[in-house]
FMN reductase
Amino acid sequence: MIAKKKIFAIIGSTRANSSNLRLVTKIKTLTKDIFDLTVFEGISSLPHFNPDIDGENPPTTIANFRQKIAEADGVIICTPEYVFSLPGSLKNAIEWCVSTTVFSQKSVGLITASASGDKANEELQLIMQTLETKFNEDTVLLIKGIKGKINDQLEIADPETLANVLKFITAFHNLLR
């Protein structure tokens, strides 16, 4: 039996039961045989990035967050777009990792699921390239109009979106090999 890959999923939204959280929860269900997926929902509990306290003894929440990324075989980031950009909470979380190598050569799947999402999608890719992560065009997914495409029962109502999510899962699994 092949061991499941450890995946750490970061949700960029701070909203309870956000479309992004529902989407990643659906991905967790769809991948239960190949991934051991842990969803990080504590993005709003991370302190504001401050380089003055990012030394040998960063805040415990930050040390734990970084360790989860380091221990994972891969990371999925799923985010909405706020004002043509990444949500501040997600950018903050990523900034806490810049002084480390936790993302260096880490396989990542990048999902932007929002009303539009184009700018946040571009920004996320640029940031992840800067951090030297591994991803490709098939492990980047942009889902426009997400609220109308996944319901509270975690059903992806749009067949094209479901097909794209399944393609993303396959590509991400291949990237991890």
About this structure: The chain has one domain: 5-176. The radius of gyration is 15 Å. The domain at 5-176 is CATH 3.40.50.360 (Rossmann fold). The CA atoms of residues 22 and 29 lie 11 Å apart.
